[in-house]
Design brief:
mainly alpha; 2 helices
């Protein structure tokens, strides 16, 4: 009879440890997911900024010459990335 209680106690301890590890893993997955979407958002913002800067420059233009060329029409930047987390709020 004592053997059954030992096995039951050991199973309970293993179950509690597994439950705690699962909770920690769930929290870590949530943090990694948030970090992923934040990085993806920042990457999209940076890509849009680079595209805007590239569109503002004219290829082959000498920056030392100050001859006022006609201003280029404004270029609409491509749509930015919107993380799903901001839509859930």
């Amino acid at each position: 009879m004592l053997g059954l209680w030992v096995v039951t106690g050991a199973a309970l301890v293993v179950a509690i440890v597994a439950w705690l590890r699962a909770r920690r893993a769930t929290k870590r997955v949530s943090e990694l997911s948030d970090m992923y979407w934040e990085l993806k958002y920042q990457h999209g913002e940076l890509r849009n900024a680079v595209m805007r800067n590239a569109a503002q420059r004219t290829p082959g233009a000498d920056t030392s010459v100050q001859n006022d060329p006609a201003p280029a029409p404004p270029v609409r930047p491509p749509d930015g990335f919107v993380p799903l987390k901001s839509l859930r709020r």
